[in-house]
Amino acid sequence: MKKPVKIGLWLLGFAVLGLLALWLEHERAKARLAAFKAQLIAKGEKLAIADHVPKLPPALSNAAPDFIAAANRLTDLKFEFQPSRMHLVAPGKARVTWQQAELPTDKDVDIWPIVTAHVEDNRPLLAEMVVALERPEMVFNLDYTKGFNLLLPHLAKLKQSAVVLANATLVDLRADQRANAFTNLLAGVRLTRLQEEPLLISQLVRITCGHIAMQATWEALQYRGWSDSQLAALQTEWQGWDVKRGWLASANMERAYGSDIFAQCRGNPAMLSMLDWSGRAPGASGKSFFAELWDDPEEAARRALHFAVMLGWTLWFSHDDERWALNHHQVWLDGARQALKADAFAPANHRTLAASKPFETPPMTMLVSRMTLPALSRTHQKFASFESVRRLTCTAIALHQHRLKHGQFPASLGALVPEFLAEVPRDFMDGQPLRYKLQPDGQFRLWSVGEDFKDDGGDATADAHQKAGSVPVFWTKGRDWVWPQPATEAEVAAYHAELAAKRAPPVPKTPP
């Protein structure tokens, strides 16, 4: 046999062995993924989308169809005319919006006429939504099998509804229409309580709506005309807000959607290309590869590399990529469960952050993980933060119940038990009792340690990310999360003067 032929056969043999090795590695990765999934399932984990789809309740129990039918007909109010609720004007001090005879902004002297007209225009729709929300469940009929392609136009309407209900509460309080104000306030809280859709984006919108309802609740607590039964009903509504179900359900569905993306990318190379691992998708010009090679060699090289990476992912890396993503999700799911079981976020969060270190930066071969994994640390922080805010809100309501019945705020939170609360409320951020001090003027200081898990003694000034000692942009951006007290007339007047200065036309410069 001639020497060139022998060399060719040897090269062919090495090529066959190389391909066989790659195929074996592919099968081993596939087996590792299957074994890991089996291990998760044996522990009770549910990995399929169908496992987490909520069942549609009977029509007479479901608020969703009638509510969204009314919400879809709401008219818009421009952002510049939206009244700010619970707006901080000094550290730990907020303007009571509904008490203002005029409501200035940095562009208008008084937006009350516009806000009031908008509420009145939508009053019949608000009444329809209130009736719908008297039903015990709210489940939208969504096709969850569409995964990340599922369209969710109702989320924008839910947020708009929460805003209009909060605005209506302010307008009614300003007009001393106690019954209407209470009806709209309760509906706003109930809206967020019922919305337990098992999608991460849905839960984030729900938390946003929850903050809107919390702001309206703070405004309402500055009204002295409530009855004991009304405050008790408001307390019950807030206590029924279960963060656990939405938190875990959305985390589970997010993981199931992730696995679905992997399956789609393996079966459809165009899907993987659409995710676009490197910015602008190669081949976007529409030219053939050879035409691109002639006109733009650099783009052609990029296109060839893109194709090689996608081919390599499909043939060899996809299963390890999916196992990497499942591990990442599992770390954060376990962390959420630990936090909820311990009723404290800080210890579980420290352990979770340490356990998630290996998954912070996916290797280059983990294409889909790099493109699709959410920032789980921030999303879990949002759930934990709102749970602390919810507990502060429930405690503030109980404090006002105590004042209504006993004529003053209590000396300690223990005095609220068992008449107004079942137990001394705990700060979900660190698991310790919420901090509370009765002030010399008869008001109170109530706070959570906040995201840094450090008790700064109820310091409401801006945290380290803002100018030291300044007014936080929002009360949960303070060094501690201090439940605001009503600002004094002087503090409100100073803030309104700042707005007037911004409205004033600039003084023309005198020519030299």
Please describe the structure with a list of short key phrases separated by commas or semicolons.
3-stranded mixed β-sheet, 4% strand, elongated
Characterization of this structure:
The protein is mainly α. The chain has 16 helices and 6 strands. It has helices spanning 3-42, 64-71, 112-121, 123-132, 154-174, 178-194, 200-221, 228-239, 243-267, 269-275, 289-295, 297-342, 345-356, 367-372, 376-406, 489-503; strands at 87-90, 93-95, 435-438, 444-448, 481-482, 485-486. The strands form 2 sheets. It has a 3-stranded mixed β-sheet with strand order 1-2-6, with helices on one face. Strand 3 (435-438) and strand 4 form a beta hairpin. Helix 12 (297-342) packs antiparallel against helix 13 (345-356).
Q: Which structural class is indicated by helix and strand composition?
A: mainly alpha
Largest sheet: 3 strands, mixed
Low-confidence stretches: none
> What is the helix/strand order?
HHEEHHHHHHHHHHHHHEEEEH
Mean pLDDT metric: 89
Helix content: 55-70%
**Discrete helix count:** 16
| Number of E-state strands | 6
Shape: elongated
Please list the strands of the largest sheet in the order they lie side by side: 1-2-6
Q: Indicate the proportion of strand residues.
A: under 5%
- Radius of gyration from CA coordinates: 28 Å
Give the termini distance in whole angstroms. Answer: 99 Å
